[in-house]
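REVIEWER CHECKLIST
Item 1: Sequence provided? yes
Item 2: Single chain? yes
Item 3: Sequence as submitted:
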Amino acid sequence: MPPEFSGFLDYYVLLGVAPSATPEEIRQAYRLRARELHPDARPDDPTAADRFKAVAEAYRVLSSPEARQAYDARLRAAAADATHHRQRAEPRVEPTLTLRVTPGSAGIGRLREPTRFYLLGELLPASAARSWSAPLDLAVLVDRSSSMRGAKIAEAKRAVKPLFSQLGADDQLTLLLFDDRTETLLDGESPVGALGAEMALDAASPRGATQLAPALDSAIRRLEQGVTAGRLAALLLITDGRTYGDEERCLELAERARLLGVPIISYGLGLEWNRELLDRIAAISGGSCVFVDEPAQLSDLLREAVERLRATLAANVRLSLAPATGVSVLRASVIAPEIADVYDASNAANASDGRRQPGESVTVNPGPLTARPALESVVALWELLLDPAALTPDDTGYIALGVVSADWSLGVESASFAGRLSQPARAPRLPVDGLGPLEPETRLALELLTAYRLHTQADQLATAGATAEAATALSTSALRLRSAGDGRLADEAQRAATSLVASLSEGMTATLRAKYAIRNLNVFHQLRHAMRTRLPSEAP
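Item 4: Structure as written out by the authors:
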C-alpha cells in the first residue's frame, strides 16, 4: 500500500528521496522506482499497477516546481502536526551556514594547452551554531554469518546492547541480523523497554553465508518513513565478510540511501571483508567505512557514531559544481570530514555519478555537517580541465569557471546557496603563461588525497599478493604525508611498508590501520589548523 502521511500520500517516501532532493535526484529516483514497480516486472503482485500509478503521480507533482511548492506546504503542515508532541521545550536554533570556494591558484594566465585547475569548496557554520535537535531513526545491521563466530559476534552484541539505553523514547531503532537470510528484531520502534529484542540479540548465533543486499533493502525501506517525518536517519553496518553475487544491488541501494540523505556507516572486522565494496557504499551514501582492528573497539565506535549524529548541524549536505564553457570536471572528491573519491570522468562505472555531459553538474555528498568533536566543515575538491580554445575573459578580465552550489536538510525543510565563480585572467605576481602556484590549502588537500589513494592501491596490491609493490606505494605515501606536515601518519605508513615485507598478515593489519587513519580522522582540519598557526599571515 502506498505510504500515507497525515491523510495524504507521501510522495517523497513513494519515490525514496529526501524532501530536499534536487530535480535531477527526483528524476533518478523515479527511474529506479518505476523499474522496480512496473507491473511487467511483478506479474504475481496484484498491487503493482496501483503502486506504479502512485509513483508516476508522485513524479508528476514533484517534477513541477509549482505543484511541488504547493505539496511541500501541505507536507510541512502535516509534519508539524504529527511531531508537535515530540518537540522539546527549548527552541531550535537554526545554524547559519556559508559556502567558501578557494581556487587552486590566484589567477589564470595565457594557456597554451589543456591545463588542470583545482577548486576547494567548503560548507561551514558562519557563526556559533547549535545542533539540530531531531529524534534519531537508526538502523543497525549485524552480520551473523558463520565467519562471525567467537569474539566477533560476542563483541558485536556487546556493542549494540547499549543502544537500548543510549537512544531515547523519541528515537526509533531498526535492528536486523543477517546471513543469507534477514531477521528483524526491532522494526522502527522505540528501543526503550524493548526487552524482547534485547533477549533475541543475546540468543543470536552465527550461521549461514553473507548476503548483504536483502538486509540493506529492508533497512532502507524502513528508514524512508523517518526521513520524511523530519527524523535524522543513519544506517550502521557491522560485518566481517564478503557478500557474493549482489554487489551491484548493494551499490544501487547505496544510491537510494544517498537520495534519501541516509549515510551508511560500515564497520569492517578483521581482514576478510570487502573493502572496495564498502568504501564505495560509503562514498555514494555520504557515510563512512571504518576498519575495526580488534572487535572490542566496536562499543566505543558505535557510541561515538550516535554522539556525532546527535551533534548534527545539517543533514544530506551536497556540494555541486556546474562547469562553464571550456571547463570540464575530471574528478571530484570529499576531503573532510572523511576522504573519499566520488567521481572520476575516466571511469564510466563510477560509484555515484557515472559519465557526465559537458556542462552538467557534478555533486559530492560529504554526509552530515556536525559539531563534534569540534565545530567542523565539509570540504570537497574538484579537479578541472581548462580548454584554452574555449576560455574567453569577459569585459572585466575575468574567466568564468562555473556555478558552485550547496544544499542541505534541516528536518522537513531545506536550504541552499549558489554563486558564480570566476578567476582573473591576470593578477599580481601571476606568470604571463600558465597558472600561479598552488594555494596552501589546495596543496594540503591534494597531498592527503594522493596519500589515501596510494594506501588504497597498497591494500589492493597486498591482497593480490604483490607485497613488494604494496610496500613501495606505502613508502611513497609516507613522503606525501610528511610533505603535508603529518609526521605521525607518515611514520605509520612507513612501518606498514616494513611490516608487509616481513609478514603478510601483520603487514595487512598495519596497512589497513594506516589507510583508515588517513580516511577517518578528519586529518585535513587538523593539519590546516597547524598550518594556519605557523603561517597566520597566509590564513584566509
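Item 5: Key structural point noted by reviewer: The longest strand covers residues 398-410.
Item 6: Recommendation: ____
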